[in-house]
Amino acid sequence: MEDFILCPQCNFENPLFSTQCENCGFSFNDQLQDKQDNWLDSLRQTGELIEPENVSEKSNAGNIDDNQSSDETPDWLKRIQNFQTSDEESKEIEPDVSLPDVVKEESVQENEKTEELDWLKEFRTISESEEESAAVELSSAESEESQPDDDSSTPLLSIDEIKQNWQKEFPNLNNNVEENEISPAEDLPDWLNKNISDILSSEEDDNIPNEVSENEESVTPEPSSSHKSNELPKWLTGSTKQSIDELNIDNDKEEQSIPVWLREINQKLDEGKSQQPEDETENIGDSELLFNKLEMYPESEKDGLIDEESQTLDIEEKEQESQSSPSALVFENDEIDQFSVKPFTTNSEDFEESYILSGYDSEGIDEESEDYELSDEEDREEKQLQSSPFSFDEIPDWLEKIDLNYTEGEIDGIERKTGEVISETDNTQEQDIQKANLPEWLKALRPIEVVTPKISNLKSQKRIESAGPLAGFKGVLSTEQVTKSYTTPPTYSVKIKLTDKQKIHAKLLDEIISPDISLGLKAPSKRVVFSTLPSLLIPLLFLTIVVITQFLNISNAKTSDYFPAETVRFHNLITGYLNQNQEAGNLLVINEVDASAYPEINLISGGIFENLFVNNHWITAISTNPNGVIVADNILSSAKEKVPSFNYSERVINLGYLPGNYLGIQSFLSNPQLTMPIDINKNNVWESSYLSNIDSVNDFDLILLISDNSDNAKLWVEQVNLLAPEVGLLLISTTQSIPLMQPYVKSNQIDGMVGGLSGGLAFNLLANNDTNEISRYSSFVQIVAIFFIGLLVSGGLASFLKKIIPFSSKEKLK
Amino acid sequence: MMENQFFWLLLSFILTIMVFSFIFGDNPLFRIATYFFIGVSSAYVFVLLVNQVIIPKLFLPFFSGDLNQRILQIVPLFLSVLLIFKLFKKTNQIVNISLAILVGSGAAIILTSAFTGTIVPMLGMITEPFSLNSLNIQNFFSGFFLILGVISSLLYFQKSSITGTNTFQSSPKIMVITKYIGAIFIGLSLGSIFAGVVISSAIALIERINFVISFLYNLIIG
Fold first, then answer.
1. pLDDT in tens, A521-563
2. Residues A312/A313/A319/A321 CA torsion (nearest 10 deg)
3. What residues of chain A, 694 to 753, have a C-beta less than 8 Å from chain B?
4. Interior CA angle at A83 toward A77 and A87, to 5°?
């Protein structure tokens, strides 16, 4: 760490905290501040700088890996690197300018032109001739600086390439561009345009470069060149004459390297005011669209000075052409300043440094530089606001890949030709037209193809009307395209929220209706028909047999001589026990029968009830099955028809339905009067009928249980044995419940049972009743039973054969 | 009177034919007939319950009974009202009071009746042949078959195994044989029940066909 500050101007060692050079008055703060204000410094510091020398060395060495890596780097990174390299070079130049060691040594290398530039900058303050030479040197040096950048920024487009791209991309617009021709001022930076215009306005005959003259006049009007020479430091005075001579020689040599365009500008200035500043501004205004295009390639703007040399010839031509063909769009200087992007901040800073180094009044310079910086900042902010949303950093890749082969066909060619003719005729008129102050939004307009390339494709689809009042117009009937471009209608999904209840209802409805629909629509396959054939044939065959039996006289079918023991006991209890006292007995009839069992029960119990009716017994009916009430009523009613003498309404009481299942049974057997106080006709039968003598179930002589359901029958049997064991229990059962009720008969819990048709036939035979109908039905049942047995056997055989046949085939395969 | 009978006979004939249409598979006629029967049965049960249970046994005692009957009638009425809360999700647990009384009393009745009315008499029936008073060869064999049938049938439904033993290990041969014997007894029992069902159904079918033929005969001949 050094304990002193070395003045870059006079090399004087100043104290560490000094702000100015004690010897020459050089301000250190300005230098630091300038460096801090440079926005590119941050960019330089953040990225890894690739020095041009290293790059060139690497490229010369032919390092394939580096080339590959450079190829792999994206375009945006390359641009940033190009910025960095260009800035690096300028940065390398800056300290050299400030370093006095270069001056002390006086052995400046000629190939280091940047040092020469610095020398020239210092001597710019000495005399005007020296300033001219310095400006020329500066321009030449900067043009030389642009060379490596141009080499390194190969992907960047030159102005001609951009024009070509524009011609390819927007042929319609190219017409205007070609017609108007880009003015030379388009490629010039703003500062140069300004200076040129100022110079022209001041009508000075000096050939001084714009920036130098302007800055001299505007920034430091008071000090003159003689003062500047007097203020030179001592170390410089000794060698001034020699250095001036040498520099004059060098300047003569380097005048040859002054760009042609700058010479021509100077020549024009010498010739005196041939060009009006308005023309220049108009040319600038004409180039606004091109600048918009250039915004997409800011390298060309940033390197505007660098590219100047390569564009000088174009600019000369454009200047000449712009003089002859003024453009339609004309902007004022203020507007141009707003539109034009500040391109060369670094160069302006270089100029400031040059002023600082020249030893002018530092305060004045500071004020001016601050104002300049403030104006720059304001310009930047305004430009950020007013500039297009597609700045350099935000330009997507797709925008760079705009279809350059886009053509609109012959129609566009026709339009182009007509447009040229019209523009030629209008150019003469437009010269007289005053400049228009267009709004900002209109100035910011750009071709829609720049923003949305897809629309450009649609544009080609636009049709020129060939007939009618709109003939010749293109794309005026926009709805015609809409009607042609048919798209499928959008599909919307709708969800219906259904409640569970609604789903159940829908399911029920579907179950009812769906078989009807599927019955007629589906064509059954052969396999289905074959499988459904038995299920159709068997019932038909069964029905046929049953129908045939109806017409057969088989009423005298042979019955077995053997009667079941329970049936004999049943007969004995009904005919003997009830009639033993020669009085009418009280019989409780319990119906546990569904309607499906009515035919069988009616057949079995018909003879029994006839016998009871003949003997005028009191019958009380009750049912724990709701349907049993009707079944019991029908059975008794059918039996009554066979015994007309029986007083049915008096001797038969139907208590109706006994609710509560086993609880009701238990309650009824415990207290019948309280459980069933009224009969089915809502009469209090326990007081007004024969039931007045009965207090409990035990008072009944017999309990006759009629059931087709063994479970309900068991409940009654169990409860009766538990609560009324003294009462005899008889059972009339269907055939299906016989096997399950037989154990209770065997265990003597049921005193007698008539089971099925065989039991009913046996009872009728024992009671000498008419057995024609029951024997007829029993014959039918025998035939049907044989048919069923045959079906079961055949089905069993079929299944057995099915099992055997696949087994044997598998064995064969094995 | 005769016209009314004919109407009901005609209606029953049509409904019978509609039910028989199930021979050709599920069809709307059969469905209409079945839904008709279900609807009629449900309506009948509803009317029966209202007329014979709710009104005469729940409300009439409050108007016709004495004070004791009225006080006692509060209990079933209260328990019946609690059953209404079953309709609401938030209060459906109140129904448990009524259901607890029903289930508890029903279980008590069933257990006692089943024990005294089924298990004890059946055990007595099974062991009766082996009583010394009536012991003979015929009773012995019949009793032996009864015991064999009961034990084998019970063992057939024995699917569990003792913990700690290998469940995959084959059971003893005697168990396997006993299970086969139990299967035979169960098969015979179910076969007899099935035969009874078939015969009962056949009788119902015959009765219906007889009705149809007789109706058509009477309709044609007069």
1. 556 566 666 667 777 788 788 888 878 877 776 655 566 677 8
2. -160
3. 708, 714-715, 717-719, 721-722, 734-740, 743-744, 746-749
4. 145
Tokens of B191: 């076969």
Token digits of residue A726:
């003294």
Report which residue type is found at A165.
N
Residues with Cβ within 8 Å of A182's Cβ and at least 6 positions away in sequence, in order, are A159, A163, A283, A286, A287, A290, A314, A318, A322
Torsional sign, CA A475, A478, A484, A489 = positive
Q: Could you count the other beta carbons within 10 Å of the beta carbon of residue A295?
A: 20
Residues in B closer than 8 angstroms to A532, CB to CB, are 25
pLDDT in tens, B12-28: 999 999 998 888 878 88
**Using one digit for the tens of pLDDT, what is the confidence trace for A105-138?**
444 455 555 555 556 655 555 555 555 555 555 5
Tally Cβ neighbours within 10 Å of residue B174.
Answer: 9
Of B20, B52, B122, the CB nearest to A657: B52
**A390: enclosing H helix or E strand:** none
Residue entry with tokens 């039931």: A691
User: Is A777 in Cβ contact with B116 (below 8 Å)?
Assistant: no
How much of chain B is in helix, strand and coil states, percent to nearest 5? 85, 0, 15
A757 interface with B at CB cutoff 8 Å? yes
- Give me the residue from B57, B118, B195 closest to A714, CB to CB: B118
Tell me the count of A-B CB pairs closer than 8 A.
156
What are the residues whose beta carbons fall under 8 Å from the beta carbon of A609, sequence distance 6 or more? A619, A635, A636, A639
* Strand bridging mode A752-755 / A728-733: parallel
- The DSSP secondary structure of A523-547, one letter per residue, reads PPPHHHHHHHHHHHHHHHHHHHHHH
CB A711 within 8 A of CB B90: no
Nearest neighbour of B109 by CB, restricted to A662, A714, A736: A662
Which of B20, B41, B118 lies nearest to residue A718, judging by beta carbons? Answer: B118
- Identify the residue among A518, A528, A550 best suited for mutation to test binding to B, counting B beta carbons within 10 A and taking the highest: A550
Tokens read off for A5: 């500050």
Distance from CA of A536 to the nearest CA of B (A): 6
Gap between the Cα atoms of B55 and B67, Å rounded: 18
Which residues 6+ apart lie within 8 Å of A333 measured at CB?
Answer: A194, A197, A281
Interface of B with A in 53-92 (CB under 8 A): 53, 56-57
Q: Which of B201, B78, B177 is nearest to A594 (CA)?
A: B201
- Which of B20, B45, B199 lies at the smallest CB-CB distance from A785? B199
Which residues, 6 or more positions from A611, have their beta carbon under 8 angstroms from its beta carbon? Answer: A574, A575, A767, A769
Q: What is the mean pLDDT of each run of 10 residues along chain A (814 residues)?
A: 72 78 75 55 49 45 46 67 61 47 47 55 56 54 48 50 60 47 48 52 48 44 44 51 55 58 63 49 44 44 47 53 48 50 45 45 48 56 53 59 54 57 61 74 75 60 76 73 68 82 84 59 62 76 79 65 86 83 84 88 89 88 87 88 86 88 89 86 80 85 90 90 89 90 88 90 87 83 84 87 71 60
Is residue A391 within 8 Å of residue A295, measured between CB atoms? yes
Whole-model pTM: value is: 0.51
A521 Cβ partners below 8 Å, 6+ apart? none
Strands A5-6 vs A13-14: parallel, antiparallel or unpaired: antiparallel
SS3 of residue A590 by DSSP? strand
